[in-house]
Amino acid sequence: MHFESTEKFAQQTDEQDSLRHFREKFYIPKQSNGEDVLYFTGNSLGLQPKTTREYIEQELKDWETLGVEGHFHAKNPWMPYHEFLTEQMANIVGGKPIETVVMNSLTVNLHLLMVSFYRPTAERYKIIIEGDAFPSDQYAIKSQIEFHKFDVEDALIELKPRENETILRTEEIVKTIEENGDSLALVMLGGVNYYTGQAFDMRAITEAGHKVGAIIGFDLAHAAGNLELKLHDWNVDFACWCSYKYLNSGPGGIAGIFVHERHSESFDLPRFAGWWGHDKESRFLMDDEFVPMKGAEGWQLSNPPIFQLAALKASLDIFEEAGGMKHLTEKSRELTSYMEFLLNEIHDERISIITPSNPNERGCQLSIRVKNSDKSLFEAITEKGVIADWREPDVIRVAPVPLYNSFMDVYKFVEILNNCLT
Ligand SMILES: *Cc1c(COP(=O)(O)O)cnc(C)c1O
Q1: Per-residue pLDDT for 374 more than 80?
Q2: Is any atom of ligand 1 closer than 6 Å to the C-beta of 222?
């Protein structure tokens, strides 16, 4: 698309956008003057679909009128409720239904999957992560290493960009994988780095890791609902993600996991067990021998929180109605490229974009580095109705999401930023 830095261009592009009506399906928070805020933190907490309330109210109503009978006789029976989300969630990440289940929260799932997929031995025990991985992932991974009585200093390999660069080159990641070869147990990266917005080449990383005999896992917190993913085809071993960022399930919403089909009957893998992962046919016989279900469902522990499932279902129905990730990423690329185009027109040395400029190496987020870590710029745009976020030491993150952000949002944001710089 050929971009222009005029308000008219932004307006016209919105008019031609086949997804523009999806904005009306969400509550947009208001400024004190009654205008919509410019909301660019869908990467942190997605907005509330207007239908979420009725989805949850349906379950409240069935609980009110049916009590325990709701497990079988609710409009959407609670016993199999999580299954109603499986296919849609599988579509979001490019997995098969047998490979996908909605359960728990993200860090919990990361631990559960590492119990099965991080099986260090004296020879093969190392884990590769991003140097600036999200803190919860760092804590989880370090604690797993210590749990197995290995030394974090020795076992943890942190990828760092080259000097004077901010993003990781795929060839360097592959080189690190090859260098550690036989001692490498696990590669555990984010699909999209939360700080820089860099999307990793998951296919190439998985291939390189498998070549040396390692297991490959991804944390897709910033990728699920943002990129078009093909976890099955890419041959990824396992993945986990949260659903309250791009997937709009509400604060602390229920998370998801992917376990590749080739592990679906690996019942010899050690796992922490609970009754919801037990074979469905015999679950209520309350036998004391654990018989895991095939596929991702076999990693479930508890009967799931129905209100959270209902909230996530409301949002997944919107993703489906919008034509899925392929369609959404088409708009996403235009929207983010438009923001990049307008930012580059500013020509002010106090700001620079650290997110890769190649659309194949990012999702919708742009990370704007502010010279001398000057937080006053962030405070000034916040004052003018922009909801973005500041990440220490020096980055403003903005994520225009295709479901509810418009080209006019992007135009207004850059205008405000520009005014605050002059
Ligand atoms: C958001 C995020 C988390 C948050 O973990 P919770 O268990 O949901 O609190 C963890 N890791 C990454 C990479 C994230 O982006």
Answers
A1: yes
A2: yes
Q: Does ligand 1 have an atom closer than 6 angstroms to the CB of 140?
A: no
Please give the number of the atom of ligand 1 that sits closest to the Cα of 108. 7
Q: How far is CA 62 from the centre of its chain?
A: 31
> 7-36+324-421, what's its fold?
Aspartate Aminotransferase, domain 1 (3.90.1150)
Q: Tell me the pLDDT tens digit for each residue of 83-116.
A: 999 999 999 999 999 999 999 999 999 999 999 9
Q: How far apart are CA 226 and CA 402, in angstroms?
A: 9
The number of the ligand 1 atom at minimal distance from the alpha carbon of 137 is 11
pLDDT tens, position by position, 224-245: 999 999 999 999 999 999 999 9
Q: Which residues are CB-neighbours of 303 under 8 A, at least 6 positions away? A: 78, 275, 276
Which residue is closest in CA terms to ligand 1's atom 10? 136
Q: What is the reported pTM?
A: 0.97
Q: How far is the CA of 251 from the centre of ligand 1 (A)?
A: 12
DSSP β-bridge partners for residue 39: 387
Domain range list for the chain: 7-36+324-421, 57-320
The topology (CATH level 3) of 57-320 is: Aspartate Aminotransferase; domain 2 (3.40.640)
The residue length of the chain stands at: 422
